[in-house]
Amino acid sequence: MFSRTDKVVISDIDKKKINYEAKIFANEIREKLNVNADERINVIKFLEEQGYLVFQILNLGTSGFIRILGKEKAIFLNASEPLGRQIYTAIHEFCHILKDLSQIKKIDNLSEEQKQYELDKMEYFAFKFADYFLMSEPLIFNYLSKVGVSNFSKITIKEIMNIQHHFQLSFRQTTRMLNKYGVLTDFQRDEFNKLSTKENPILLKEKTVELGFDIDLISPLSESRIPERFNQSILDNIKNGRISRKKVLYLANLLHMPSLEKIIEVGKD
If you placed Cys at 110, which of 13, 38, 114, 200 could pair as Cys (CB 3.0 to 4.6 Å)? Predict the structure, then answer.
Protein backbone atom coordinates (compact mmCIF):
# COMPACT_ATOMS: atom_id res chain seq x y z
CA MET A 1 0.00 0.00 0.00
CA PHE A 2 3.03 2.25 0.25
CA SER A 3 3.36 5.00 -2.34
CA ARG A 4 5.27 8.24 -2.58
CA THR A 5 3.37 11.44 -1.85
CA ASP A 6 4.13 12.97 -5.23
CA LYS A 7 1.72 10.36 -6.61
CA VAL A 8 -1.01 11.27 -4.13
CA VAL A 9 -3.42 13.90 -5.44
CA ILE A 10 -5.68 15.40 -2.78
CA SER A 11 -6.90 18.92 -2.02
CA ASP A 12 -4.85 21.35 0.05
CA ILE A 13 -7.57 21.53 2.69
CA ASP A 14 -7.61 17.74 3.03
CA LYS A 15 -3.81 17.75 3.34
CA LYS A 16 -4.03 20.29 6.19
CA LYS A 17 -6.73 18.31 7.93
CA ILE A 18 -4.93 14.98 7.51
CA ASN A 19 -1.63 16.43 8.71
CA TYR A 20 -3.31 17.65 11.91
CA GLU A 21 -5.16 14.37 12.51
CA ALA A 22 -2.10 12.21 11.77
CA LYS A 23 -0.02 14.16 14.28
CA ILE A 24 -2.62 13.58 17.01
CA PHE A 25 -3.00 9.90 16.09
CA ALA A 26 0.77 9.29 16.12
CA ASN A 27 1.08 10.86 19.57
CA GLU A 28 -1.88 8.82 20.85
CA ILE A 29 -0.37 5.56 19.58
CA ARG A 30 3.05 6.31 21.06
CA GLU A 31 1.40 7.04 24.41
CA LYS A 32 -0.90 4.01 24.24
CA LEU A 33 2.02 1.67 23.48
CA ASN A 34 4.28 3.30 26.08
CA VAL A 35 6.93 4.38 23.59
CA ASN A 36 9.39 6.39 25.66
CA ALA A 37 10.04 9.82 24.15
CA ASP A 38 13.79 9.56 24.78
CA GLU A 39 14.14 5.92 23.83
CA ARG A 40 15.64 4.77 20.54
CA ILE A 41 13.13 2.43 18.92
CA ASN A 42 14.12 -0.81 17.24
CA VAL A 43 11.14 -0.60 14.91
CA ILE A 44 11.21 -4.16 13.57
CA LYS A 45 11.48 -5.62 17.07
CA PHE A 46 8.84 -3.18 18.34
CA LEU A 47 6.31 -4.24 15.68
CA GLU A 48 6.93 -7.93 16.31
CA GLU A 49 6.43 -7.34 20.04
CA GLN A 50 3.02 -5.88 19.14
CA GLY A 51 2.17 -9.23 17.57
CA TYR A 52 2.77 -8.44 13.89
CA LEU A 53 4.85 -10.53 11.51
CA VAL A 54 7.56 -8.55 9.72
CA PHE A 55 9.11 -10.01 6.57
CA GLN A 56 12.09 -8.27 4.99
CA ILE A 57 12.39 -9.75 1.50
CA LEU A 58 15.03 -8.95 -1.11
CA ASN A 59 13.81 -7.77 -4.53
CA LEU A 60 10.23 -7.41 -3.30
CA GLY A 61 9.34 -5.12 -6.19
CA THR A 62 7.69 -2.46 -4.03
CA SER A 63 8.61 -0.65 -0.81
CA GLY A 64 6.11 -2.55 1.29
CA PHE A 65 2.60 -3.85 1.81
CA ILE A 66 0.43 -5.63 4.37
CA ARG A 67 -1.25 -9.03 4.18
CA ILE A 68 -3.51 -11.08 6.42
CA LEU A 69 -2.01 -14.56 6.84
CA GLY A 70 -4.68 -16.65 8.52
CA LYS A 71 -5.24 -14.83 11.80
CA GLU A 72 -1.93 -12.98 11.60
CA LYS A 73 -1.28 -9.47 10.31
CA ALA A 74 1.96 -9.28 8.33
CA ILE A 75 4.09 -6.42 7.07
CA PHE A 76 6.31 -7.08 4.05
CA LEU A 77 9.30 -4.79 3.45
CA ASN A 78 11.72 -4.56 0.55
CA ALA A 79 15.06 -5.65 2.03
CA SER A 80 16.81 -4.38 -1.11
CA GLU A 81 16.10 -0.83 0.04
CA PRO A 82 18.27 0.84 2.71
CA LEU A 83 17.30 -0.13 6.26
CA GLY A 84 16.31 3.45 7.13
CA ARG A 85 13.77 3.40 4.31
CA GLN A 86 12.50 -0.02 5.46
CA ILE A 87 11.95 1.34 8.97
CA TYR A 88 9.95 4.25 7.62
CA THR A 89 7.89 1.96 5.38
CA ALA A 90 7.25 -0.38 8.32
CA ILE A 91 5.63 2.41 10.35
CA HIS A 92 3.73 3.59 7.28
CA GLU A 93 2.26 0.10 6.88
CA PHE A 94 1.70 -0.13 10.65
CA CYS A 95 -0.58 2.89 10.28
CA HIS A 96 -2.56 1.12 7.55
CA ILE A 97 -3.08 -1.84 9.88
CA LEU A 98 -4.23 0.36 12.75
CA LYS A 99 -6.47 2.67 10.78
CA ASP A 100 -7.33 1.45 7.30
CA LEU A 101 -7.91 -2.31 7.27
CA SER A 102 -11.41 -1.91 8.64
CA GLN A 103 -12.19 0.85 6.14
CA ILE A 104 -11.15 -0.82 2.88
CA LYS A 105 -14.43 -2.66 2.31
CA LYS A 106 -16.42 0.51 3.01
CA ILE A 107 -14.98 2.26 -0.04
CA ASP A 108 -15.39 -0.65 -2.46
CA ASN A 109 -18.83 0.56 -3.53
CA LEU A 110 -17.62 4.04 -4.44
CA SER A 111 -16.92 5.08 -8.02
CA GLU A 112 -13.36 4.45 -9.20
CA GLU A 113 -12.58 8.15 -8.95
CA GLN A 114 -13.96 8.44 -5.41
CA LYS A 115 -12.27 5.21 -4.36
CA GLN A 116 -8.89 6.40 -5.63
CA TYR A 117 -9.30 9.69 -3.79
CA GLU A 118 -10.04 7.86 -0.52
CA LEU A 119 -7.02 5.60 -1.08
CA ASP A 120 -4.85 8.66 -1.70
CA LYS A 121 -6.06 10.16 1.57
CA MET A 122 -5.12 6.93 3.37
CA GLU A 123 -1.65 7.04 1.82
CA TYR A 124 -1.12 10.65 2.78
CA PHE A 125 -2.30 9.98 6.34
CA ALA A 126 0.10 7.02 6.68
CA PHE A 127 2.93 9.12 5.29
CA LYS A 128 2.33 11.84 7.89
CA PHE A 129 1.78 9.30 10.66
CA ALA A 130 5.21 7.81 9.97
CA ASP A 131 6.76 11.28 10.10
CA TYR A 132 5.28 12.10 13.49
CA PHE A 133 5.59 8.65 15.03
CA LEU A 134 9.29 8.38 14.21
CA MET A 135 10.34 12.02 14.59
CA SER A 136 7.76 14.39 16.01
CA GLU A 137 8.62 18.02 16.64
CA PRO A 138 8.84 17.68 20.46
CA LEU A 139 11.04 14.60 20.07
CA ILE A 140 13.54 16.32 17.80
CA PHE A 141 13.78 19.49 19.88
CA ASN A 142 14.13 17.51 23.11
CA TYR A 143 16.97 15.58 21.52
CA LEU A 144 18.67 18.69 20.13
CA SER A 145 18.52 20.27 23.58
CA LYS A 146 19.87 17.11 25.17
CA VAL A 147 22.93 16.95 22.89
CA GLY A 148 23.54 20.70 22.97
CA VAL A 149 22.70 21.65 19.40
CA SER A 150 21.35 25.20 19.61
CA ASN A 151 22.92 27.20 16.76
CA PHE A 152 21.13 25.73 13.78
CA SER A 153 22.97 27.91 11.27
CA LYS A 154 26.18 26.09 12.22
CA ILE A 155 24.81 22.56 12.47
CA THR A 156 27.36 20.04 11.15
CA ILE A 157 27.08 16.91 9.07
CA LYS A 158 28.19 14.88 12.10
CA GLU A 159 25.33 16.34 14.16
CA ILE A 160 22.91 15.52 11.33
CA MET A 161 24.14 11.92 11.33
CA ASN A 162 23.86 11.75 15.12
CA ILE A 163 20.21 12.73 14.75
CA GLN A 164 19.74 10.25 11.90
CA HIS A 165 21.12 7.34 13.92
CA HIS A 166 19.25 8.30 17.07
CA PHE A 167 15.91 8.29 15.27
CA GLN A 168 16.86 5.40 12.94
CA LEU A 169 15.92 7.15 9.71
CA SER A 170 17.27 7.43 6.22
CA PHE A 171 19.57 10.40 5.64
CA ARG A 172 17.12 12.26 3.40
CA GLN A 173 14.20 11.62 5.75
CA THR A 174 16.30 13.18 8.50
CA THR A 175 17.12 16.31 6.51
CA ARG A 176 13.53 16.58 5.29
CA MET A 177 12.11 16.53 8.81
CA LEU A 178 14.76 18.93 10.14
CA ASN A 179 13.83 21.30 7.33
CA LYS A 180 10.13 20.86 8.10
CA TYR A 181 10.72 21.91 11.72
CA GLY A 182 12.90 24.89 10.81
CA VAL A 183 16.18 23.39 12.03
CA LEU A 184 17.58 23.40 8.49
CA THR A 185 16.95 26.07 5.89
CA ASP A 186 16.12 24.97 2.35
CA PHE A 187 19.69 25.82 1.38
CA GLN A 188 21.21 23.77 4.23
CA ARG A 189 18.97 20.80 3.41
CA ASP A 190 19.94 20.91 -0.25
CA GLU A 191 23.64 21.19 0.57
CA PHE A 192 23.54 18.22 2.95
CA ASN A 193 21.51 16.22 0.43
CA LYS A 194 24.35 16.49 -2.08
CA LEU A 195 25.90 13.66 -0.08
CA SER A 196 22.91 11.43 -0.83
CA THR A 197 22.25 11.05 -4.54
CA LYS A 198 21.30 8.15 -6.78
CA GLU A 199 24.07 9.21 -9.14
CA ASN A 200 26.83 8.83 -6.53
CA PRO A 201 25.57 6.75 -3.57
CA ILE A 202 29.10 5.98 -2.39
CA LEU A 203 29.55 9.57 -1.13
CA LEU A 204 27.17 9.09 1.78
CA LYS A 205 28.72 5.76 2.75
CA GLU A 206 32.22 7.24 2.71
CA LYS A 207 31.19 10.21 4.86
CA THR A 208 29.26 7.96 7.26
CA VAL A 209 32.30 5.72 7.80
CA GLU A 210 34.66 8.71 8.00
CA LEU A 211 32.61 10.19 10.86
CA GLY A 212 32.54 6.91 12.78
CA PHE A 213 28.98 5.73 12.14
CA ASP A 214 27.94 2.31 10.89
CA ILE A 215 26.33 2.09 7.46
CA ASP A 216 23.42 -0.21 8.36
CA LEU A 217 20.77 2.51 7.98
CA ILE A 218 21.92 3.39 4.46
CA SER A 219 22.44 -0.19 3.29
CA PRO A 220 20.10 -2.98 2.18
CA LEU A 221 20.10 -6.30 4.01
CA SER A 222 22.54 -8.94 2.78
CA GLU A 223 19.75 -11.51 2.72
CA SER A 224 16.04 -11.72 3.36
CA ARG A 225 14.77 -12.01 6.93
CA ILE A 226 11.64 -13.74 8.15
CA PRO A 227 10.22 -13.70 11.70
CA GLU A 228 11.93 -16.07 14.11
CA ARG A 229 8.71 -17.90 14.88
CA PHE A 230 8.43 -18.70 11.16
CA ASN A 231 11.92 -20.21 11.27
CA GLN A 232 10.83 -22.34 14.21
CA SER A 233 7.64 -23.34 12.41
CA ILE A 234 9.65 -24.49 9.38
CA LEU A 235 11.98 -26.48 11.63
CA ASP A 236 9.04 -28.14 13.40
CA ASN A 237 7.44 -29.03 10.06
CA ILE A 238 10.69 -30.58 8.80
CA LYS A 239 11.06 -32.68 11.95
CA ASN A 240 7.43 -33.80 11.76
CA GLY A 241 7.61 -34.60 8.05
CA ARG A 242 5.02 -32.00 7.06
CA ILE A 243 7.38 -30.19 4.68
CA SER A 244 10.18 -31.63 2.57
CA ARG A 245 13.75 -30.35 2.59
CA LYS A 246 13.39 -29.84 -1.16
CA LYS A 247 10.55 -27.37 -0.57
CA VAL A 248 12.58 -25.51 2.05
CA LEU A 249 15.50 -25.26 -0.38
CA TYR A 250 13.08 -23.86 -2.97
CA LEU A 251 11.83 -21.33 -0.39
CA ALA A 252 15.42 -20.37 0.50
CA ASN A 253 16.16 -19.71 -3.17
CA LEU A 254 12.89 -17.83 -3.73
CA LEU A 255 13.42 -15.55 -0.73
CA HIS A 256 17.19 -15.17 -1.25
CA MET A 257 17.76 -16.68 2.20
CA PRO A 258 20.83 -18.94 2.37
CA SER A 259 20.37 -19.09 6.16
CA LEU A 260 17.26 -21.26 5.65
CA GLU A 261 19.60 -24.03 4.53
CA LYS A 262 20.99 -24.11 8.08
CA ILE A 263 17.49 -24.85 9.33
CA ILE A 264 17.46 -27.90 7.08
CA GLU A 265 20.68 -29.15 8.66
CA VAL A 266 19.23 -28.65 12.14
CA GLY A 267 16.09 -30.47 11.06
CA LYS A 268 18.13 -33.54 10.17
CA ASP A 269 19.16 -34.03 13.80
Answer: 114
